[in-house]
Amino acid sequence: MGEPAPISLDTLTEQQQEALASARLIAKEAGWKLDEFSEWTLLRFLLKHRWKLSAAEKQIRSTAAWRAEVGADAIRASIAAGLQPRDWPAMDRICPHVLLAFTNLPTDDGDRLTYVDANDVFEVDAFLNCATAAEIFVINLYVLEHASYHNDRRSAATGRLCRWSTHFDARGIGMRHISVR
User: Fold this and answer.
1) How far apart are CA 26 and CA 143, in angstroms?
2) What is the pLDDT of residues 147-163, one digit of tens each?
């Protein structure tokens, strides 16, 4: 199948530009508080659904509802305003138990790999006892919104979609620690 071609707003066809404009409207109608870089996230949704707006619409609406439910738009706004990871909720209690290597590596074609490695240095029991499940869930929201905002911002700065992937390696941590549902 090969590597995906770099995506630039300048190279979108007229139909793709219309689909992106429609995606913006759908997101706003659904209550998503879009910022100056959010179109890059919407572009990812359209690409995932091969530019089929009807398929992307369901994901956009459900994402907007989820963002409202968990407060993701407010978190993203605080990150955009300059909130640093050391100032995220509960980080004063969590940081002493976690040694992380957090890296954003650009690839040759402009994609980004966000790698969070805690393998063999992560004290699972201490970590799980220093914060509630709800606090750990919120920290995960901050991590993801931080990566999303900064990769969308990089996309806008370069004019090319920066795709990103996040990897977290910590023995003993599972989905039950990532989602409070």
Assistant:
1) 26
2) 889 889 988 988 888 87
Which one-letter amino acid corresponds to residue 16?
Answer: Q
Residues in contact with 62: Cβ distance below 8 Å, sequence separation at least 6, in sequence order = none
> For 37, which DSSP code?
T
Whole-angstrom Cα distance, residue 12 to residue 85?
Answer: 35
- pTM, 2 dp: 0.79
DSSP 127-150: HHHHS-HHHHHHHHHHHHHHHHHH
Mind giving me the DSSP string for 87-125? GSTTHHHHGGG---EEEEEE-TTS-EEEEEE-TTT--HH
Cβ(178)–Cβ(25) below 8 Å:
no
Write the single-letter amino acid at 179.
Answer: S
Q: For the chain, how big is the Rg over CA atoms in Å?
A: 18
Reported as a single tens digit per residue, the pLDDT across 62-75 is 999 999 999 999 99
**Apex 80 CA angle, 149 and 16, nearest 5:** 45
